[in-house]
Design a protein that fits this description.
Number of helices: 20
Number of strands: 11
Structural class: alpha+beta
Distance between the termini: 93 Å
Largest sheet: 5 strands, antiparallel
Strand order of the largest sheet: 4-3-2-1-5
Strand content: 5-15%
Shape: extended
Radius of gyration: 40 Å
Helix content: 40-55%
Length: about 600
């Protein structure tokens, strides 16, 4: 809800003052056709006035905003300065205009605080408008140059091309590129630049003719300096620089840097070496030699994440600690790793060293996580890059979108078994688990590396005793990771839906498998059917059994899944056999 805002006379006087200062420099906000109201490049880009004053500092206790003035436009595009309440300031200012009930957002050049000076603002805005006109002119000028015809321009001669190549390829290391496509590409760029330069010369010559200038009314010729004479050539090719004392600058640098100690350089090299080992790790496995169950997949990924985390927490930290301490043992006067006084620590170069170590470690950890996340996402993308259409219990159409042959011929990734259990058909692993688990494993991997300790506590044990500080890592809540998670969810849902669809095809057999055979035979006997009718029933059951035998495959591929149907097929056949034997027994009794 917007705060109540009742401006005083001072605010209205300030608005009038701003209007007058703007008019003095030729800025008329009330004219919809004036330069300031022109739709073009935002003036804010050229405004040198303070862009984002700290509104929070200016607020008094209990205030909801800071008093100021802003430009308010009517429906015809005419602007007027009016009092307002500035609620916040960033790239856009959130303001509440006097007489309005709801806040709005405006750019910087349309708002002023009451403690800012209107004359300074008006001059700065006037300069910004002129700079914008110059920028527009140069943009239009370049459009003219780039779109002028080049067919009649004289091309580079062979002699000129030879001179360019001989100047460019003037060493053995560069000469080897002389016959390659790179040289042709560079020559094409040179030819393009040559044509643009000639066009520019032609256009400038035309613009110097006053009769032709009327055809270029959109260009501000004063900004292009068409008639400005060229500056005289300098007498020498060097410039004068201020006197420079290398010795004093070197002394100051050495007093502030740690890199003047070779031991520190070697220690940082050891840190880099240990971090390079981290970059060889992968948080999640993406290469598998054979099909596997979801349980096996989860175990492999969980074990891999545990191994990587243990490697980071133990081997990595220990390697960095040893690599630093062994090198700095001889610098106890300058860098005492046994320090236990916080003040001495802060006055020493150690904080700088630890910041460098932490930066390298965090960058390495970030690269590890980003590359692992990218590899795993690509793995899921390649795995699920297909369209699946379930046609029947023994027919599934799979269309691979990927054109690479080795990906198209890949074996099914997951193994799953179709079962009849508790009166219904189920998979040993539900489609919902196949959708959820691979994504959850990805999230768990990101969370697992979020508590990797910094090396500070291990390098300076006495100072940081009992304190555990962790490296910053990418979490699952970051935008890039959220995008990857949503992508994988969508892809996995696309290949798991046909798995559920295939399961529903078996609902036609539920009634038979849930049927009580004794009750069925008793009911059949009570009907008092003839011997021939009993034989017809046996024949019908055998035909149904044969149909099921033909329609249900031992196993079938449904996208990334290989479904084992043999158990259900055998269960149906066994029950049909039992029912047939029971009816045959009934026939024998009648005979």
């Amino acid at each position: 809800m917007a705060p109540n805002f009742h401006p005083d006379d001072k605010a209205y006087q300030f608005a009038k003052w701003v209007t007058e200062e703007c008019l003095d420099v030729g800025i008329d906000w009330a004219d919809p056709e004036s330069l300031i109201n022109k739709r073009s490049i935002p003036v804010t880009y050229f405004l040198e006035y303070p862009v984002t004053p700290n509104i929070e500092i200016k607020k008094q206790a209990g205030d909801e905003g800071v008093a100021g003035c802003c430009v308010d436009y009517d429906i015809e595009g005419s602007g007027v300065w009016v009092p307002c309440l500035i609620l916040s300031a960033s790239k856009l200012f959130t303001i509440l205009v006097a007489g309005y009930n709801h806040p709005t957002q405006v750019p910087r050049h349309r708002v002023l605080l009451l403690d800012e000076h209107p004359r300074q603002y008006a001059k700065s805005l006037h300069k910004a408008l002129r700079d914008r006109e110059r920028a527009e002119t140069f943009l239009r000028y370049n459009v003219y140059v780039e779109n002028m015809p080049t067919a009649d321009l004289p091309p580079l001669t062979q002699w000129e091309i030879s001179r360019i190549l001989s100047s460019a390829l003037n060493s053995k290391s560069l000469a080897k590129f002389g016959d390659g496509g790179l040289t042709n590409m560079l020559l094409e760029e040179v030819k393009t630049d040559h044509e643009l330069t000639l066009n520019q010369i032609v256009l400038k010559t035309v613009l110097q003719d006053k009769k032709e200038q009327k055809d270029f009314a959109l260009l501000d010729l004063s900004a292009l300096d068409i008639n400005k004479p060229k500056p005289p050539a300098p007498e020498t090719g060097t410039i004068v620089v201020e006197p420079y004392s290398f010795a004093s600058v070197l002394s100051e640098f050495q007093s502030k840097t740690l890199l003047s100690f070779k031991e520190v350089v070697h220690a940082l090299c050891n840190v880099r070496s240990e971090c390079s080992k981290v970059l060889e790790l992968q948080l999640l496995v993406t290469e598998f030699k054979s099909s596997l169950s979801l349980t096996e997949f989860k175990r492999i990924q969980t074990d891999t994440v545990k191994y990587v985390v243990q490697t980071l927490k133990r081997n990595w930290i220990d390697g960095i600690r040893i690599g630093i301490s062994t090198q700095l043992d001889g610098l106890k006067n300058e860098l005492d790793l046994e320090v236990n006084d916080k003040k001495k620590f802060e006055e020493s170069p150690l904080p700088v060293l630890l910041r460098q170590v932490r930066y390298v470690m965090e960058q390495s950890l970030r690269v590890l996580v980003e590359e692992s996340a990218s590899t795993y996402t690509n793995f899921i993308a390649e795995l699920t890059d297909m369209d699946i259409e379930v046609l029947a219990t023994d027919s599934v159409k799979i269309t691979h979108k990927n054109k690479e042959e080795h990906l198209r011929e890949r074996d099914p990734f997951f193994l799953v078994e179709l079962k009849f259990e508790d009166g219904m058909f189920v998979y040993t692993t539900s489609p919902a688990d196949f959708e959820r688990e691979p994504v959850e494993l990805f999230i768990e991997a990101l969370v697992a590396v979020s508590d990797i300790p910094r090396a500070d506590s291990y390098i300076l044990k006495k100072l940081f005793l009992g304190r555990l500080m962790c490296l910053y890592s990418i979490g699952p809540e970051e935008e890039a990771m959220v995008t990857r998670i949503e992508f994988m969810k969508q892809r996995l849902q696309g290949v798991c839906s046909p798995l559920s669809e295939y399961l529903r095809l078996y609902d036609q057999y539920l009634e038979f498998l849930n049927m009580d055979l004794s009750e069925y035979v008793r009911s059949h006997e009570e009907k008092g059917l003839s011997l021939q009718e009993d034989k017809d029933e046996v024949r019908r059951l055998n035909d149904e059994k044969a149909r099921i035998y033909e329609s249900i495959p031992p196993s079938i591929r449904i996208g990334i899944f290989q479904v084992d149907c043999q158990g259900v097929k055998q269960q149906l056949q066994t029950k049909f056999d039992l029912l047939v034997r029971m009816i045959l027994s009934l026939i024998a009794q009648k005979a």
